[in-house]
Amino acid sequence: MKHIVKKTVLASVITAMGMSMAYADQQGTTPWLVRVRLLDIATQKSNDSGLAGGVPTDSMQVGGRLQPDVDITYFFNPHWAAELVLSYPVSHSVSLNGGNIGSFQELPPTLNAQYHFDSMGKFTPYVGAGVTYMRTFNTNLISGLGLTQNNFGPDVEVGLDYALDQHWSLNADIKQVFINVGVTNGAGGTFNLHPDPTLFGVGVGYHF
């Protein structure tokens, strides 16, 4: 039974890759698209109350910022694609009741499945959904506060590509990430911080 399943999965992968290459050959490109974007990361002021009532609800916020990113997209056919979003470490300030209480860094790779609609002239809209993995490090918060290191959360996106020619395109993209970060102290108290960032991105893409 296991051999049958493995053969079925392998056959599906080979078929998908064959369809992808056939589509790309028709377009005069490969299935690979690489984009570079500038992101405006807008975070929410949202947290649970915790640490024995010492932190009121919705009093903490992770600071937003501008950040470049690179995404790699692979097209299985004209409509379906997988997108991997990469970035170098992102630095965030953290505030409590408007006052700075420290900072941390994080890596937020995102993997999405995308559906690209039929082109409308030079415009091609798309939607997507997937998961974001956020790993925090270099945490420097007051009063011995710390953050959980490994955090996963779902995300959704909508975007639009504008073709300049066969290879180059302009891109606008909005992603909404739903993610929690655990805040701890040395005494074992804990609560959740909900940055839930909205990512507004504009950039340029190259279809190989």
User: Could you please say which CATH topology applies here?
Assistant: Porin
Poorly predicted tracts of residues? 5-23
State which percent range the strand residues make up. over 45%
Secondary structure tally: strands: 14
Describe the sheet with the most strands.
8 strands, antiparallel, barrel
The CATH architecture designation is Beta Barrel
What structural category characterises the helix and strand content?
A: mainly beta
Q: Considering DSSP H and I runs of 4 or more, what fraction of the residues is helical?
A: 10-25%
Order of helices and strands: HEEEEEEEEEEEEEE
Q: Give the overall average pLDDT.
A: 87
- The number of helical segments is 1
Shape: elongated
Number of domains: 1
Distance between the termini: 40 Å
Radius of gyration: 21 Å
CATH top level? Mainly Beta
Key terms for this structure?
14 strands, single chain, 12% helix, eight-stranded antiparallel beta barrel, elongated, Porin, 208 residues, 1 helix
What would you note in describing this structure?
This protein is mainly β and 208 residues long. 12% of the residues lie in helices and 57% in strands. It is built from one helix and 14 strands, in the order αββββββββββββββ. It has one helix at residues 2-27, and strands at 32-42, 60-62, 65-75, 80-86, 90-96, 99-107, 110-116, 123-141, 146-147, 150-163, 168-177, 181-184, 190-193, 198-207. The two termini are 40 Å apart. Residues 5-23 have low confidence and may be disordered.
